[in-house]
Amino acid sequence: MKKITLLGLFLFSGITIYAQDNKQWTLEACVDYALENNISIKQSELDTKLTDIDKSQAIMDFLPTVSANSSYYINTGANVNPSTNQFENQTFRSASGGLNSSMNLFSGLQNWKTLQRSKINIIATQYQLDKMRDDISIYVANAFVEILYNKEQIKVLESQNKITKENLTRTKELVDAGVLPQGDLLEIKATDATQIQQIIAAENDLFISKIGLAQLLQIKDYQSFDIAEEDYGLFPDAILEEDASTIIAKAKEEVYDVKIAEANLELAEKDLELTKTTYYPTLSAYMGYSTRWSSTNLDFITGEQMGFFDQLSTFDGTSLGVQLSVPIFNGLTTRNNVKRSQINVERSKYLLEQANLDLESQVYQAYNDAKNAKKSYEAAMQTSEARQLAFEYAQERYTVGLSNAFDFNQSAITYENAQSDVVRTKYEYIFKVKVLEFYFGIPIDQINYN
């Protein structure tokens, strides 16, 4: 009941905001707050935006590229005049400009496969985000149930101490009357002091558990942070009536571990297809338009300096062409890259198989844990009822002087331990059933009350 793992602390390390006006937090409020403010989730949401950009880029790669260029020079000495292509040993100015476009006609369907991969990656990234949300919900629920346990444990200890104080008063009266020896009074006082120490320790455990949940939510006001005071009774356990195989089948639909592994396998297979496209020739087309100007160009008819726009229209030109590139030998780079991709596919298949095995193991473990937790709780209840009767009987015998304080205290301690076991097994049962329901697709933040 007191496990808050390092992974949980890491996942929640980024949530930033303060407690508000001594708010009493419900489990649903805690989970919603964490899901809304956790930085790890926000970072994962950014990853989904990046995958959307990758898809957009894959679509744009089908379109031709267009670029423009221009240049301006001042030339001195012997230089080639860009307009006449003749050497001129004088200072002159020149300019040129152009517009170019190219388009990939064929590259082994690389663009198409890249687009398909980007769509798969969007799904895989969304699965990762959803899994992170589920993990965070479980860590919050665990910390929340721990607080419930500590609260009820304090109530048990205070109830026992109240009985002890009543017995202390009666014992003192009997000792003063000479009916009981002084040792009985000292024994009861020792029990009272021990119980007070237990209450203090339990209150400290409660405070620590509140700090744990507050830190998960990055709430700084530890003193006023508290969860809602509600009667969290046991809820229906119909999930335990389901067959384990049915829960496993449902878990594969609801839990994201297997889905992530499946998506990763699809990505690996698509990467292999993309790598194989480098075996194919590539065919591309291009088109260009260019023009130029020089300060020394003369009109062939008038012999006068040609105007700027006259030169641009006179010395312009276009170019059209296609380019075919056939891979012949590149040091077996493509072949080795394909082999690497094939190995990654095989690795992803093993990871998928392992994910299925892990999920089945986790569900079976959760199923058995929940059933055993129910049995433990029922046994603790029966033990507590029996210990209560024994305690009441011991109390009656002590009151009439048929037993000593030591025997009475031993009975009280045994009853107290039995009550504590009821509280402990109750909340273990609650949490383990919630985990099992989580695998069945029931949100972790839903607690039903009797």
Automatic annotation (TrEMBL):
Localization (cell): Cell outer membrane
Molecular function per GO: efflux transmembrane transporter activity; porin activity
GO cellular component, one term: efflux pump complex
Signal peptide per UniProt: 1-19
Source superkingdom: Bacteria
Coiled-coil segments: none
UniProt keyword terms in alphabetical order: Cell outer membrane, Membrane, Signal, Transmembrane, Transmembrane beta strand, Transport
Predominant location category: membrane
Assigned protein family: Belongs to the outer membrane factor (OMF) (TC 1.B.17) family.
UniProt protein name: Outer membrane protein
Organism field: Formosa algae
